[in-house]
Amino acid sequence: MSDNSRSVHQFKVKLINGTEKKLSDYKNKNLLIVNIASACGFAPQLKELQQLREELKSEDFEVLAFPSNDFGRQEPLEGEAIHSFCELNYGVQFPVFEKIMVRGEQAHPLFKFLGDKKLNGKLTSTPRWNFHKYLVNKKGEVVDYFFPFTKPLSTKVKKKIQRLG
Fold first, then answer.
1. Tens digits of per-residue pLDDT, 3-28?
2. What is the DSSP string of 8-43?
3. What is the DSSP letter of 141?
4. Among all residues, which ones are annotated catalytic?
5. Where are the domains of the chain?
6. CATH topology for 4-164?
């Protein structure tokens, strides 16, 4: 059994509708955790994230999206409006969580964990913009990250996910 302090499975987060969700519910799934923003130039990646999810669904894979207004105030929407935007414009079916902060002192504990090697034991990479992607294995361990300009359907992303098994 892995040390839970080095796993995202220790965290609870809230879905966009306010329902609390334990990340331990995603044990035995590889995850791509992404900070998103509806008014960002990278927003079309939402469609690619959905396509990636569809392609790899049979491989125990899930995308988790966390809206954030930390960069350029590019998430002006709140609550259900964010979910509607993602679903109507990009066909998003993966979980979208409550809007949170992803950097700085006020960052959500999950994103503090994801971005700090002292906490996650693997890497340090705090988001510098929207659509920063963290790859998490089935044990909940952070194994890699991708910068916002790395497209979700790129060979690089797909191969890293598939190598996790």
1. 688 999 999 999 999 999 999 999 99
2. GGG-EEEBTTS-EEEGGGGTTSEEEEEEE-TTSTTT
3. -
4. 40
5. 4-164
6. Glutaredoxin (3.40.30)
